[in-house]
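Cont'd.
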Amino acid sequence: MTKKRILSGMRPTGRLHIGHLVGALENWVALQDTYENYHLIADYHALTTNPDSRGIEEHSLDMLVDWLAAGIDPAKSPVFRQSQIKEHTELHLLFSMLITSARLERNPTVKDQVRDLHIENISYGHLGYPVLQAADILLYKGEVVPVGEDQVPHVEITREIARRFNTQYGRVFPEPEAKLTKFARLPGLDGSMKMSKSAGNTILLSDSPEEIAKRVKTAVTDPEKKRRGDPGRPEICLIFTYHQKFNAAETPSIDADCRTGALGCVDCKLRVAERIAAHLAPIRLRRAHFEAHPEEVKQVLHAGEAKAKLVATETMREVHASMGLG
Ligand code: ATP
Ligand code: MG
């Protein structure tokens, strides 16, 4: 049986955090034997919220280091930059005729970005973020898209565009499905709904154990639990969510001891910081290797781009044939 194809990517807008890891990256690594994975560095998408392109290549390579450190095996999962495969821009243009601007204006993910980043007037390119993403996914005929929860509306738009194309010109594309993890929206340290670079409420994959402890100390907890002895409510505490992910075995006792007040927030935070640091230790170790071998990282990228180019060329040949574009 042929393996189903996965296409998923991330924007090179800064170092990755544990939200990226538990929301998407861990799934990519876990699925790379059972699926045929392709992973895209969405460097054009990075420009949608900030057109300043300085350092974009370094950021792309640095994000690739995070991916490799997290366990992406480039022999199984080709990795490539969107900007290096010109077919993305062509398919994006063709797809842009198949969706209305009203549909794009209803997209809740872009609405959230506009609010969080205080954008007054959205650019044409930013509004078209999901159209470019549809091109990213469908150029490789991705069937499964492992992403965090904020990306689900974009996969839905991809499905609509695929249907529209297939009806208009003949069947070329699959209708891909999003695949979520149990922690598809990890909350940020400040208590906001989503850990996010732009909000500065993150723990980075590259943080040292000391940095992690320092960051976790700043986290917001149950405001009614002011000191040890006060009963707390784990269900509203983001530190408890972190325990559920990184310290699953101890969560029943932590739940009970928080509720009685026996466990104070300071100790509870120290314990989770240790568990997060232990979880990230092998990633940090591999990161050090790839940081010391930049040529190896570039080589991985160029090999991935050569593989991606072959698939993209073949898909565009089918697109041209079905549209009668010669
Ligand atoms: P940030 O939200 O930190 O600014 P981003 O939106 O620029 O990151 P993307 O490239 O859009 O980064 O996201 C990469 C992937 O990580 C997406 O699948 C996204 O859903 C997922 N992701 C990002 N933050 C979280 C989070 N806090 N919890 C779960 N998944 C997340
Ligand atoms: Mg995002």
